[in-house]
Design brief:
This protein has 243 residues and is of the alpha/beta class. Strand 2, helix 5 and strand 3 form a beta-alpha-beta unit.
């Protein structure tokens, strides 16, 4: 594994202990996400679709898919995230196959999944275009890809004085420590991450089209969510297309 991915894995291993699930943030947000995912995979209800959650983290989308009747595999670069996901799966009684794996080099043959999902992963990939092509490779013909991300405007060295001011004020708070660790780790990775600031909706559509997806569509976020899960200042999307 190259040094960039090693540093990414290190951060998310550390972050895993405090990452949580959607309902830790808001029950409404969790319900809205689950309803949205259910609607997007509803076309497969006559079968038991095989689904892959890429960059699963603590397993949230994988659990939504499992409750929707899918046979789910979740992969993540972080072994500690996978450990937390397995723990949550046991608590929830959901038999998801969680395993470590690289989103840009999937350990699966061609054409094996009916559904591939990814949430908030594109921005932290060294080769996002290659990743989307890889996700298409493992989809069956007629399978559906679902990608959610956003234009996060992540902090860089230009905001260092603001970051240290906030961290100094909140040094004993977990949120302040998370912000500092995120900044300290990712500031060194910016040159290797082309979409570090986030993914504009138009860029996502372009990447999916270039990967071979036709008729890329986007959910109407206002129809799907009662409130923005990431706050009113953040723009995010859910894109989907069929192979």
């Amino acid at each position: 594994m190259d040094r960039t991915k090693e540093k990414i894995r290190w951060y998310w291993n550390w972050r895993s202990a405090s990452y949580g699930l959607d309902d830790d943030q808001s029950l409404n947000i969790a319900e809205d996400w689950e309803a949205t995912i259910n609607g997007l995979v509803n076309r497969f209800r006559d079968t038991v679709p095989r689904a892959l959650d890429v960059g699963t983290g603590t397993g949230q989308l994988a659990f939504y898919l499992a409750r929707a009747g899918c046979d789910v595999t979740g992969i993540d670069l972080s072994g500690q995230m996978i450990a937390m996901a397995r723990k949550q799966g046991r608590i929830k009684g959901l038999p998801v196959d969680f395993r470590t794996g690289d989103a840009e080099n999937l350990p699966f043959e061609d054409n094996v999944f009916d559904v591939v999902v990814s949430r908030n992963l594109i921005w932290t990939l060294p080769s996002p275009e290659s990743a989307v092509r890889e996700w298409r490779r493992v989809l069956k013909p007629g399978g559906r890809i679902i990608i959610s991300d956003g234009f996060w405007q992540n902090p860089t060295w230009s905001g260092i004085h603001h970051l240290f001011t906030r961290t100094a004020k909140n040094i004993l708070r977990q949120s302040g420590l998370i912000s500092f660790r995120f900044f300290w780790n990712y500031a060194r990775l910016i040159p290797a991450l082309p979409l570090y600031q986030g993914v504009p909706l138009s860029k996502m559509g372009e990447m999916m089209t270039q990967a071979g997806f036709n008729d890329v569509a986007f959910c109407n976020i206002r129809d799907c969510f009662r409130a923005n899960p990431y706050g009113s200042r953040t723009s995010f999307f859910i894109a989907y297309s069929d192979k």
